[in-house]
């Protein structure tokens, strides 16, 4: 690992912004300002349109994990008679809230929210968020998770402008109706007011942000060599994602594109020579982000892809129609794009082809329901896949030294160079 390389400026700026923003959020909560906790796959834009500050549940889990405090808080769950080995990525903020308060809480600790909002993708997820209400008195607003009988494998070509066809009107109808019903409840709980014209502004800005992310993703895919490490790209992309619908977030996405473009034009490379291009499928390994650069010197290996930039490029933009219905369309199939075959598997193969990867490291969390299909599709396309089974936010679930050894041995057997995938090429994205 080349530790002397300066960090991507966009990543450093995003991290500084997030620290300052969170300090202001804590101060506001201390003065009685409402605060929402929202799951990553739920429509945070509702709160943005109502000017209610919110924290994304999984972002806060990543902070706890990065501070190597996940074990402490999860064990506090166990001490209360609750499981500490189920849905850890979603349960960590709850675990912190239930644990005894301490002076060394990450970033000073998360204030108790006024309301929590989540899509219930299973009985366990519903139970995790119900505990906020039953144990802490925080109202829980649940949204249902619907499925579809007809699935478009090429959803990334349709989602931006033809989302009714891609998702199906019945699914959008359900979530739009739920959003219209939950808005008055948020208003009563927070004292805020929903303004449709404000949501239209939020959706427009977040669409602009998605376009900049598409440009950055496509630029990295076509660059001769990877110019930026993935553990810089992730915060540079995801921190602005948690601020979607703001001018700051849109400007940050634009700044990231221009910085990456400058590095590509200068011929910069994370590792020289670049001998193996890798894809990381799964959630970020928050308790060991340095892992992604562990094999540069020893194997000339660089991770060129993670789902964070790719989803920011393909999964969020929705144009046309009523803003609230477009927001429903943004989220009612969100998990499908990552986890439901053939939505997910066709997308992963498409992205692997575009980024010319030679192999895939696939992190499989205990709650995964479709990992077999992902690995099978990639191997059928001619890609070597190494499966790792662990919870990404629970530092107890993985031995970093063993992980390093396992990946190193796998890389030793991996051919050098870019991927040469078999099968029919993925359809080109023809949308403007």
Automatic annotation (TrEMBL):
Q: Which regions span the lipid bilayer?
A: none
Q: Quote the Pfam families the UniProt record gives.
A: HGD-D
Q: Which InterPro entries match?
A: FldB/FldC_alpha/beta (IPR010327)
By sequence similarity, the record places it as follows: Belongs to the FldB/FldC dehydratase alpha/beta subunit family.
Name assigned to this protein: 2-hydroxyacyl-CoA dehydratase family protein
